[in-house]
Give the backbone structure.
Amino acid sequence: MSEDKAKAIISRTITTFHESLIHGELFAKDYMDDGAFNYSNIPSSIKDYCNKYFSPPEKHYHHSTVYHNNDSQAWPNDAYKAIQRLNSQLKTGYTNSQIKKMIWSYSGGR
């Protein structure tokens, strides 16, 4: 396998974990608490932070929640370990620091 293909697999896997373990989990919790998708599971402190620093703020609620107030082990811990193993298997040569940076390098959320 080419290095470019291996790195593309790493990138797509990070995206899949990001969408599933951040957005999927938080949307599921949101719906489960009151039967609506209305960000009711997002702490008011996170909403206040996003309302102050982002426009539109709702686009940053999930990222900010996992960055500032995460109670999930799946993101980033389990995702990080899985990406490390995949990196090793594909021999892409990413360092642990590079992997950590890659899983947190999305737009917004901080």
Summary: The longest helix spans residues 3-34.
